[in-house]
Amino acid sequence: MKIKFLVLFLFGLSLIVSCRKDNVEKIETEVEDEFWIELRIPEQKKGVSAIYGSIEDTLVIATHNKIYQTTNQGKSWVNVYNTALGISGFSMFKGELLAHSNFGDYASSPFLFSLDHGKTWSRKSKYDYLVYDQIRVSREVISINDQKQFKIKSQPDKINDEDYNRPLRQPDKLIQVYKGNETLVYFPYERDLNCLYLDVNHRIYIGAEGTQFAWSSKNNVRTYPTHTDAAIIYISKLPVGQF
């Protein structure tokens, strides 16, 4: 009787453990990198879509329709403005910080304006709308000079999953283009990358999603890629001249 009870107990315990395992979401375990800084804003449904400023001073970012500011190198973030429209990029024009609404290769059509480096925002601009009409900000390419650029490059489907029976989408890459030749830049993170930005110290900033390119299982449903509620900024520790 005791042996039978023990067998039933162990069988029941194994069922409990297996059920718990199916309901556990994948835990992120990324280590600090020698060449990149990772900053996170938790509890975000969208990744970082726009960046302006400097981590050494004041940094302003957008997570699609929310604007955040940090003045202490990312130790804390202040949500300074929320909007119904998505924010595709930031630019500075004659002392006025602009938030653009049109997505694509270039951010355009400013609709929010700040006179204090992103601390407060208004829909009222300093100038007539026609003044801003030609302002464009490249979202996925930063130009260092006529011969050198850095850009985000989407990766083709390369990895076939035997269970899924089709190729799986792969993370974006950071590419350097010099005199027309492309080389892969060291970037150890596997993410969806949304935008690039170059600060006054020539350090690269990358706005990213919290997506993980791995399978996760929850309630007996497998998901790829795995989505997490985090907006992420990567910042190069070195200026582009030392890449």
Q: Explain this structure to me?
A:
There is one protein chain. The chain has helices at residues 2-22, 129-132; strands spanning 36-42, 50-53, 59-62, 66-70, 78-82, 89-93, 96-102, 106-114, 137-138, 141-143, 148-153, 159-161, 166-168, 173-178, 181-184, 193-198, 204-208, 216-218, 221-223, 230-236. The protein is mainly β. The protein has one domain. A four-stranded antiparallel beta sheet has the order 1-20-17-16, with no helix packed on it. It is globular, with a radius of gyration of 22 Å. 26% of the residues are buried.
Number of helices: 2
Count of discrete structural domains: 1
Number of strands: 20
Quaternary status: single chain
Strand order of the largest sheet: 1-20-17-16
Q: Mean pLDDT, rounded to whole units? A: 85
Question: What is the secondary structure topology, with strand pairs?
Answer:
Layout: H1 2-22, E1 36-42, E2 50-53, E3 59-62, E4 66-70, E5 78-82, E6 89-93, E7 96-102, E8 106-114, H2 129-132, E9 137-138, E10 141-143, E11 148-153, E12 159-161, E13 166-168, E14 173-178, E15 181-184, E16 193-198, E17 204-208, E18 216-218, E19 221-223, E20 230-236
Antiparallel strand pairs: 1-20, 2-3, 3-4, 4-5, 6-7, 7-8, 8-9, 10-11, 11-14, 12-13, 14-15, 16-17, 17-20, 18-19
